[in-house]
Amino acid sequence: MTFARDSRYDALSMALHWLSAALVLIALALIEMKGAFGKGGGRDLVKLLHYQAGALVVMVTVFRLGWCTVRRAPKASVAPGGVEEYVGRMVHWGLYAALLAVPVAGVVALLAAGKPTVLLGIDLPVWIDGGKAVAKRYKHYHESVANGMIALLVLHVGAALWHRYVRRDAVMQRMLPGG
Ligand code: HEM
Ligand code: HEM
Hints:
Elements: H1 11-33, H2 41-70, H3 83-113, E1 118-119, E2 122-123, H4 131-167
Antiparallel strand pairs: 1-2
Helix pairs in contact: 1-2, 2-3, 3-4
The protein binds protoporphyrin IX containing FE (HEM) (2 copies).
């Protein structure tokens, strides 16, 4: 199958998509590993690496949203104005919102917890007054929105695979380099 040049995302959009997907999966895998360690060394290290991967997600997402405003978007992949287009757009914007909201809630939880932490080489300030309650609340937001994000990702990846293997149309190729 051949595709017109603008039926695919541009190379930078693809690179940013796969980089953020990898970072989100790394952040999730690291925090899942937490349970395998007792209190202390290994557990603190996987948590610290989780924070760094999550902070990189925010940086990539901010850059990606900036690029969205200047790039030439590819042609619609499904019938314009239909339910599929609408649902697809909602899921994509939901994912962008979660790519920012989840890490930001995590950072607020850390700031409020009053435990000194380094984020991408920067010492986070420690916020003391009433910190514990705020930390608990934002940790809860962080985990709830992350669970919502996982549900959206299941829909998103399921839709991509459905287009690729059931419908056998070109939607998946829009985000893949080559051919
Ligand atoms: C953490 C993982 C992921 C996140 C956060 C994510 C997020 C997104 C977002 C926000 C878009 C919209 C791009 C735009 O129009 O600006 C998108 C598009 C896309 N994603 Fe993902 N994605 C992830 C993983 C995946 C995976 C694993 C696949 C494939 C199995 C995939 C396939 C696609 C495809 C094919 C599109 C283009 C859809 C279209 O507009 O035609 N994504 N993704
Ligand atoms: C896209 C990025 C991120 C995702 C998907 C994510 C996801 C998660 C999930 C699912 C949990 C709950 C794990 C469990 O069941 O115990 C969690 C815990 C946590 N995350 Fe994140 N997170 C991200 C980024 C961040 C960032 C940037 C920070 C802060 C700098 C952060 C701070 C935390 C904290 C403090 C916890 C609680 C850890 C504990 O139980 O002690 N996260 N995260």
